[in-house]
User: Which sequence fits this backbone?
């Protein structure tokens, strides 16, 4: 495999922002991959990583806003960002559809992230040249 | 450049059990990229056998370890992307 | 070649192992070849006689027993880890194969991943 | 100290539900303490533990609902449940007041939990006979 | 019943660095309560020095270890509450 | 007697250390006696020359330097952990005291806690 030819990546993030370094490392990797002419097929949030898609995260103003920075990146490069539905529901991340289905008082998913099943991960895994995982330290 | 069988991406502190699991599965034609807390492996003088060892420059600098990187190649994110494509397989510990 | 999903965390104290199993089941559901490797404290998944009523979680024994049925190819357990945690072969289900987790094992798979 | 006399506890939970066992262990401890005639002064959620106070957590119907079970316990025994504000804002847990202040689209704090500073922990620590911590495994 | 200086509440697997840190700070008049994944210390045959060792019955049962508890007193949540009050100090690892 | 806040995780890879420091600062702000103990990989907080611009986090060196000013009594570092991570006394700020983390040390405090 020649790494100068364009390739594609699926990135899986399992570490939460403000708890692990995973979202920062993954974003730096994603930007470098795009800069080298490669594509990011999709970003899949799994386990505690789903908190990256929260619309309500409000860090102190002098700290980077990782959910916002990631959302900007996804929009700019038209990369789908998908949070695993099973991980999300257990951890309190819901979109409007799940809000209605479970009769909850609010939804808190940040656009352009969407919620879907592990099938999205399987598909990314099949289609991409490489699938990379970004975990927390513990 | 030799063949690169497996690229091991290691982000755990040397005290984390997964650090040892990674070392136990290293092959002679493998390479490691130390990232995040994994770069502390440079300070704790872990033995990486014959594997090539890379470390992410920004994480090394953040932890004040820029002076402890003798046998280690520092890489930036772009070079790391290249390594993931050179390797036959990549595993994130 | 197949994916190797690695579980190195014991059940009940955390959810990572369950989420790893979900990943394996998903691959199998899409007809992607997948095997499981238990290593380190993860081998505690394989102990028999888990009674979880007191901690209000479902036992993982049944989930694991279903793995071959759902199309997961091999269930591997690292030999040294089993020794460390006192899990002897009679305690292992027929579907579990003792192995040595090393570079040769890894080379048999096109990908390997943890759930977290 | 005679452990038959009534005592009081502050419980600090730092592990998230559906990610660690901490909320289950802490609830079993709290119930046993009450049954023995002791009091729970307060429950303080810190770090990832703040996710226990989410109103949007929706586990599968055959799994215990830890946020709901905890809320029921707090109400029944009139125990204050407080999520650390710094931990909460960074992780996307906000009440109506913080929603307004930061112009967010929703709030997601489950009653009777409230959001307040680490001073609540310091006070509990001073007043209670014992302060106990319930962490995750990693 | 002897004096109980420090009650160590240990919920980490034996491979976790904090498990070892706990053992390193154990005193002769201390006691340990193994809870959650900490009960795996009974299976891994860790040495607890001279400290009294308790283990939470529900966590022991969940992990299939009810048969491996020779030198260990199994306690329920209520007895654990009592131990936290007997001790001069309590530390959760 | 004082509270001992223990930090056994290195900076930047996780937030637990920062949250431990916040706990210590809060106690000090309410005039409660508090000391810090760095042990295990936590001693990596004490290394000099941390340049964090590439990872977009604030360096913890300054936070820690402020600890005595804010009323934190002692900043202790476990000797063996410092040796393991190659942190030599010249690298340690004047306010940091090398100690042996053992039962005798713990006995000097009425409480001890981790942030997570």
Assistant:
């Amino acid at each position: 495999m020649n790494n100068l030819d364009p390739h594609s990546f699926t990135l899986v993030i399992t570490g939460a922002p403000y708890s692990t370094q995973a979202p920062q490392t993954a974003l730096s990797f994603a930007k470098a991959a795009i800069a080298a002419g490669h594509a990011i097929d999709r970003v899949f949030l799994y386990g505690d990583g789903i908190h990256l898609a929260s619309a309500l995260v409000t860090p102190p103003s002098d700290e980077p806003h990782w959910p916002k920075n990631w959302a900007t990146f996804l929009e700019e490069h038209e990369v789908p960002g998908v949070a695993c539905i099973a991980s999300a529901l257990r951890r309190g991340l819901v979109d409007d559809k799940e809000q209605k289905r479970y009769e909850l008082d609010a939804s808190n998913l940040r656009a352009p992230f969407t919620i879907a099943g592990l099938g999205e991960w399987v598909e990314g895994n099949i289609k991409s040249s490489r699938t990379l995982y970004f975990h927390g330290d513990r | 450049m030799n063949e690169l069988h497996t690229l091991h991406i290691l982000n755990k502190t040397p005290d984390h059990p997964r650090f040892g699991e990674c070392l136990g599965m290293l092959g002679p034609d493998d390479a490691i990229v130390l990232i995040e807390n994994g770069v502390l492996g440079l300070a704790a003088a872990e033995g990486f056998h014959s594997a090539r060892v890379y470390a992410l420059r920004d994480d090394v600098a953040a932890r004040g370890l820029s002076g402890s990187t003798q046998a280690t190649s520092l890489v930036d994110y772009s070079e790391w992307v290249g390594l993931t494509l050179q390797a036959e397989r990549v595993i994130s510990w | 070649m197949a994916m190797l999903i690695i579980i190195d965390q014991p059940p009940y104290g955390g959810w990572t192992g369950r989420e790893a199993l979900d990943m394996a089941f998903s691959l199998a559901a899409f007809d992607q070849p997948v095997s499981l490797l238990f290593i380190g404290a993860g081998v505690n998944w394989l102990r028999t006689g888990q009674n979880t009523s007191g901690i209000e979680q479902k036992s993982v024994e049944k989930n694991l027993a279903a793995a071959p049925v759902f199309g997961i190819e091999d269930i591997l357990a690292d030999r040294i880890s089993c020794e460390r945690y006192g899990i002897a072969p009679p305690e292992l289900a027929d579907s579990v194969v003792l192995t040595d987790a090393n570079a040769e094992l890894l080379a048999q798979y096109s990908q390997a991943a943890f759930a977290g």
